[in-house]
Amino acid sequence: MKKAFLSKVAGTLMLSAGLFASSGAMAQTTLTFDGAGNAIFGALHATPGDYIDTYLFSVDTNASYASGSVVVGRTWIDAARLANYGITGIQFFKVEADTSRTDLGTVFDTSSGIQFFPIDALMSGNYGFTVTGSTAIEGMGGSYAGNLNLAAPIPEPATYAMLLVGVGLLGLASRRKSNDKLG
Question: Second label for 149, Cα 20 to 30 Å away, from 17, 31, 57, 169?
Answer without folding.
Answer: 17
